[in-house]
Specification:
The structure is a single chain. This protein is an alpha+beta fold. The protein has a domain at 22-72. It is 25% helix and 42% strand. Strands 1-3-2 form a 3-stranded antiparallel sheet, covered by helices on one side. Strand 2 (48-59) and strand 3 form a beta hairpin.
Length: 73
Amino acid sequence: MIDAEVRDLAPRPAAAVRLKAPTSALGGLFDEHLPNIAHRLADMGMQPAGPAYGRCHEFGPEQVDVDVGVLHG
């Protein structure tokens, strides 16, 4: 068992890219796209303000639909 809780958090800005790819490619999506997001934030004078995240819209045996991103501030 895990000890879980529900929290209401204030909205925070994020930079992300939404991708659809084979499920087997999920790890590589982070490796490929997180540096691009970090460089784009730097170009705009911003920095990441937390760890990277993935938000799955769909996760199946064949395909994943995921946001790969990072909070910024």
